TrEMBL record:
Enzyme kind, highest EC tier: hydrolase
PANTHER family listed in its UniProt record: N-ACETYLMURAMOYL-L-ALANINE AMIDASE, N-ACETYLMURAMOYL-L-ALANINE AMIDASE AMIC
Cellular component per GO, a single term: outer membrane-bounded periplasmic space
Alphabetized InterPro entries for the sequence: MurNAc-LAA_cat, N-acetylmuramoyl_amidase_3, SH3-like_bac-type
Protein name: N-acetylmuramoyl-L-alanine amidase (Partial)
Amino acid sequence: MKLTTLISTILFTLLSIFVFEQSVNADTAIVDGDGVHVRSGPGSEYDSIGNVNNGQSYPLLQQQTDWVEIDYNGESGWVSQEYINIERVEQEYAEIDSESVDTVYNNTHLRSGPSVNDAIIAYVDQGTTLAIVRSEEEWLEVEYEESTAFVHRDFVTDTTKIPNNLGFKNKTIVIDAGHGGRDVGAIGTSNTYEKDFTFLTAQELASELTYLGADVHMTRSHDEFISLNSRASYANFVDTDAFISIHYNSVADLPSVTGIETFYYNDQMKPLAESVQQGMIRSSEDEDRGTSFGDFQILRLSLQPSLLLELGFISNEEQEALLSTTGYQKQLVSGILEGLSTHFNQ
């Protein structure tokens, strides 16, 4: 076995362990219906912040009367219980060796007691460090302001278990969720939009990179239109170590086409492109469409190491459904992380 292959195997194994371990939730909400509204609160009077479709799964945060709260792309979202099937998993929690934990989601709930029935007393951002007072089964009592609060173990990670040999610490990475707002991008077989898939992947990638110690920036934090010039300028301004632009393909006349491909503009970026492409194919087992020179504006304008990833075809009905699942999104992200880690450790 070549040395580079051996290193990639080790990195992939480590990333699979750490990326998937910190994302496991005790319960999963599985959508039963298409075009189901996700709302900002537990009731139909709250604003719709998005839509979910049949078979998609999301981490379940809590249940409240006829509504369930889910982790919707890193944010809190509420869906009517009528359209949700709950998959429950019994989970054992290991002892935490450190004196503190970090939150892994935005708007993480801090409660007055160790139960979802206890009042929410605060919301904290992803990456917030909380000092541990004591543990109580699946809950941790943590210091908060002048008192204490409780946080569920699924929403935090033990800071002592974050690997420090994967090359992400102190790296600045800009993630570009392609399209947005009035620019919907490609359209899938069930009238899904590329802009929603790119944002889903970008949020997952940002979460994992933050967990691994990177300084992560997003070109857009919600569904909004941002020009290509602005996206590239932002990456140049923050002096990123890697700029990753995420996209999905669609060819309506060729519904069976599938595969992943990676584009670069500067020949110096070809090794990075090959590392990330190999990582994604390894983790997803999708068809390898290779790496290519791409004369894309977003790449031409970037002064930093940059790639444009085409992560699959939403014109392929089977792949569109697969891309909607949390599990497959995590596979894609794991491959991207493997490729970046290989590059940073060279």
